[in-house]
Amino acid sequence: MILRSRHLLGLEDITAGEISLILDTAESFREILDRPIKKVPTLRGITVLNLFYEPSTRTRISFELAEKRLSADTISFSTSVSSVKKGESLKDTVRNIEAMKIDMVVVRHSSPGVPYFLTNCVESNIINAGDGAHEHPTQALLDMFTIRRKYGKLDGLRVVLVGDVKHSRVVRSNIWGLKTMGASVAVCGPSTLLPYEVERFGVDVYTDLDEAIDGADVVNIMRIQLERQQAGLFPSQREYTNLFGMTKERLKRLKRNYTIMHPGPMNRGVEITPEVADSKSSVILDQVTNGQAIRMAVLYLLSGKKEKEKEEDDE
Ligand code: CP
Fold first, then answer.
1. What pTM does this model have?
2. How far is CA 152 from CA 97, 146, 148, 173, in A?
3. 62 C-alpha to ligand 1 centroid (Å)
């Protein structure tokens, strides 16, 4: 089994075999993270550009550490201190950096489709680190990896994704990935934060959190973006917390061996109470640790593909 594409743009078209390959590969890299010296020579000679046009703590540091721990050379690009400030376009920016001989680009951007756009601008392998409200594939992969490590499977589990379903790239990638792996997926949020005809994603849809989480194995809670309140999509933070906040009382509805997840950053006291976030069933920090193993696996699996495709073209 190999990955069919030399880019990772999203999970909508990825197969169960490809997801299993990434998760299985991540298991080997996860073991390296527990060693005293967390470094292997796997990506020696490969140069990776981390191109972040949007703020990030977890994804950016996780990719940077994954690259360093695989012995790649890395460059981290920040718009605030670059010639983007002088009006240079995304295409020119990436083409100029690629002219300095890079091999892979990890990109985060507020516009959906930017990672795909870059595949037509440069030769490097492109990895989507979050594009607008479209996809965040490595987040969903690390979420699935974390769930699989706890339950030994994804197939047959009931996973509920709670919050701003309409604007969440994490929800979208989780839906595609989890359904492909045989999980039963439900989404829950205010009707103003659910996409039009969301049922067409093949998920159960709820606007009542207590109903949604009844008998669930996993609840993955999304950050409520406070600017949505200014846009009038929910009346107040207090009302959102009352109706959709994950509290200790609500945990009683879940299955016995339940799991609480959040991709971060969290609004403590809004979509999740501190006691739930810090409870023993919360795997929020495990998600962060596992994210590095997933990113190491993705970088490793994609790194060889550019040269291989070139060789095949030459034959
Ligand atoms: N989960 C996530 O994407 O977090 P960051 O925005 O900090 O990268």
1. 0.95
2. 42, 10, 5, 21
3. 9
Quote the ligand 1 centre to 285 CA distance (angstroms). Answer: 13
Assign domain 16-136+289-307 to its CATH superfamily.
Aspartate/ornithine carbamoyltransferase (3.40.50.1370)
Query: Are 128 and 135 contacting, i.e. CB atoms less than 8 angstroms apart?
Result: yes
Residues in CB range of 231: below 8 A, 6 or more apart: none
Express each pLDDT in 162-203 by its tens digit: 999 999 999 999 999 999 999 999 999 999 999 999 999 999
Ligand 1 atom nearest 54 alpha carbon:
6
What are the residue boundaries of the structural domains of the chain, listed by start? 16-136+289-307, 137-283
Fold match between domain 16-136+289-307 and domain 137-283: yes
Question: Which tens digits make up the pLDDT trace of 266-311?
Answer: 999 999 999 999 999 999 999 999 999 999 999 999 998 656 565 6
Write the residue with the smallest CA distance to atom 5 of ligand 1: 56
Taking the CA of residue 291 as reference, the ligand 1 atom at the shortest distance is 1
Look up the CATH architecture of domain 137-283.
3-Layer(aba) Sandwich (3.40)
Cα(132) to ligand 1 centroid in Å equals 12
Q: How far is the CA of 272 from the centre of ligand 1 (A)?
A: 17
Query: Does the beta carbon of 57 lie inside 6 Å of ligand 1?
Result: yes
